[in-house]
Amino acid sequence: MLKLFRLNNEYGTTLRLAVPIILSQVGQIITQLADNIMVGRLGTLPLAAVSFGGTVSFILFISCMGITLGLTPLVGEAYAQGRHRDAAANLMNAIILYLGIGALVFGVQYAVIPFLDNMGQPLEVVEAAIPYYKYLVWSLLPFMLFAPFKQFLEGIGNTTIAMAIVIFSNLLNVVLNYMFIYGEWGAPELGATGAGLATFLSRLITPFMIIGYCLVHRRIRRYMILLRHTHFSWTRVRELMVVGFPICVQMSLEGWTFSFSSIMMGWLGEIAIASNQIALTLCNIAFLTLVGISSATTIRVSHAYGVGDYEAISRIGSSSYRIGLIWNIFTAFSFILLRELLPQIFTADEDVIAMTARMLIVVAMFQLFDGMQCIGMGILRGMQDVVITMRIAFIAYLAINLPFGYLFGFVFGFGEIGVWLGYIFGLSTAAILLRRRFKHNLRMAQESSSANLDDE
Asked: Residue 49's Cα: distance from chain center in Å?
């Protein structure tokens, strides 16, 4: 009975942290969803252009996002141990590091523009995608200033403010989309380019809002005061990179897998590009809940890890796996039952609807594996055991997912369905290996604890 009570308490605690993160992630995806729905009404070509431009932008954007996630477990550990000055110092150095990385990636993303027509996409799609892509590149800079404050707040257990800011930002994005895509309220009619402009403007306000909150909120303001007494430190930058870089590589490999699979879809034509974009958008919406659960798990595990409570880590991990499993079963059945209706939200093209419906059957099949690997990543990040996640990602995504997707899609001739089948093989491999690593870490901790007791 006591074990059941503890597990129920774990569910509630994790969900209380996860729900604001989930809503924040929902706000993030609203940008993509709004772009796809509103641009999709203009036709298949603009939708394909937004899909291609977003895919190329995402290749390096996901790398930047991964780097920033390294701050959360470091802040969480310092916070659990009462080292508030160290938490503030980590924030200061993260701001400097992330802005520098953002500027570097900005330059790289602009430099690839002349080469976009060499990726095997229809020329008209590339030409329509470039103006949209440029605005997405500019929107990276405000994100890299917003991110360190967001991850810092989550590290100390505050997951609500980022939710509120992101939701507001993306509601603004919807309004700006309406203005600039369709030329309403005196704005120029920019089509797909207008969606990119709306994304940039809506992201631009986020760092100002979160910095303002940190300056006026009484509990957070003390950290802002401590920032005045901190300085740049190569040691702290190295700590941020030691945790953040493997997360960056892991997320990049996963993101690149989806991006390169999307590029492979371009080899099958405009219908495949548009259908794949709709399927990915729906898949990402379902994935948002898992990201929230995973992030909440990272926060809770980092706090338990900071005080050496491995029994709590075991309970947190087990409850998070169960929550993720329940959600994935629900989304899998939803995709199968509604596969004919969901694509109609985005387009009226019957060919796109039919192809997307076929894809959603495969999307439903890999939901369980996707959920388990996401939760596993969250647990290991909280324990700062991130190098292994990078290695697992290499095996699962590059060595298995992409080759199998190409094999089934083009060698065996399954087309778009074959490309999606590659995900099942890759994600299931990641889920199994991450689960085994979690169990290994707990076993090693228990053995170490028992050895220490014997020595006493």
From this structure: 22
**Three-state DSSP class for residue 233:** coil
Q: How far apart are CA 230 and CA 228, in angstroms?
A: 6
Spatial neighbors of 253 by CB under 8 A, at least 6 apart, are 390, 393, 394, 397, 398
* DSSP secondary structure of 315-357: HHHHHHHHHHHHHHHHHHHHHHHTTTTGGGGT---HHHHHHHH
Q: Which of 285, 325, 286 is nearest to 11 (CA)?
A: 325
pLDDT in tens, 160-210: 888 888 888 888 888 888 888 887 887 787 777 788 888 899 899 999 999
| Tokens 């690997």 -> residue | 373
Residue partners of 83: CB distance under 8 A and separation at least 6: none
| Model confidence pLDDT, tens digit, residues 339-362 | 888 888 877 788 888 888 888 888
> 99: closest CA among 135, 149, 44?
149
pTM attached to this predicted model:
0.73
- At a CB cut-off of 8 Å and minimum separation 6, what does 138 contact? 106, 200
Which tokens sit at 195?
């969606």
Conformational region of residue 183, where left means phi above 0, alpha means psi within -120 to 50, and beta covers everything else:
left
CB burial of residue 112 (10 Å; 0-12, 13-18, 19+)? middle
Alpha-helix runs per DSSP H in 69-159: 71-80, 84-111, 123-155
3-state secondary structure of 30: helix
